[in-house]
């Protein structure tokens, strides 16, 4: 399979919500209202990975820019895992966040989601703390962070005095 990354389109919403329900257990997956809220956050963007032949979404990532960016969720259908879709999505989101001046990216994952933890560590993320009972089902979250190199500098240069 070959994949392409594109921006979210409103017609994608139901497909992406169903994907989230498949990717995460109850208590971690988002309700429609929650997902709609995250997609609408100020500074948020959503990228969708589609199969080039069928144009069907295979995964998506929702991220929010700021001094420290935040990956809200990354979802990849089971059939598309281990094909590079997740890596394409996270790299594309990191590039977009870097271009907006983000210096680091934070994200959360359930302490028992060993596949996600391994994926994030391969992409340079490190655990910085644990949030007890972060998810509505009572599961703790690991907070991971990655420092971005080459982030656009937003320095203000003061005039020099004579």
Written account of the structure:
With about 160 residues, the chain is of the alpha+beta class. The chain has a single domain (about 5-145), classed as 3-Layer(aba) Sandwich (Aminopeptidase). It has helices at about 15-25, 30-40, 85-100, 115-120, and strands at about 5, 45-50, 55-65, 70-75, 105-110, 125-130, 140-145. The N and C termini lie far apart (about 65 Å). About 25% of the residues are buried.
Approximate shape = globular
CA distance, first residue to last residue: 63 Å
Q: What's the CATH first level? A: Alpha Beta
- Runs in which pLDDT lies below 50 for 5 or more consecutive residues are 152-162
Sheet-strand content, in percent, reads: 25-35%
List the helices and strands in order.
EHHEEEHEHEE
Task: State the domain count.
Answer: 1
The largest β sheet comes out as: 7 strands, mixed
By DSSP, the count of extended strands is 7
Strand order of the largest sheet: 1-2-3-4-5-7-6
Mean pLDDT: 91
CATH architecture annotation name: 3-Layer(aba) Sandwich
Radius of gyration: 17 Å
């Amino acid at each position: 399979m070959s994949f392409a990354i594109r921006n979210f389109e409103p017609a994608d919403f139901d497909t992406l919500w169903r994907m989230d329900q498949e990717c995460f257990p109850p208590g971690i997956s988002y309700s429609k209202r929650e997902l709609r809220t995250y997609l609408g956050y100020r500074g948020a963007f959503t990228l969708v990975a589609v199969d080039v032949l069928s144009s069907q979404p295979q995964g998506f990532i929702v991220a929010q820019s700021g001094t420290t960016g935040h990956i809200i969720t990354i979802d990849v259908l089971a059939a598309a895992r281990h094909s590079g879709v997740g890596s394409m999505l996270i790299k594309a989101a990191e590039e977009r966040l870097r271009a907006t001046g983000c210096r680091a990216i934070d994200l959360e994952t359930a302490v028992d989601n060993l596949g996600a933890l391994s994926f994030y560590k391969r992409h340079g993320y490190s655990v910085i703390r644990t949030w007890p009972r972060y998810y509505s089902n009572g599961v703790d979250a690991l907070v991971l962070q990655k420092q971005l190199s080459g982030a656009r500098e937003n320095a203000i240069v003061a005039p020099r005095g004579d």
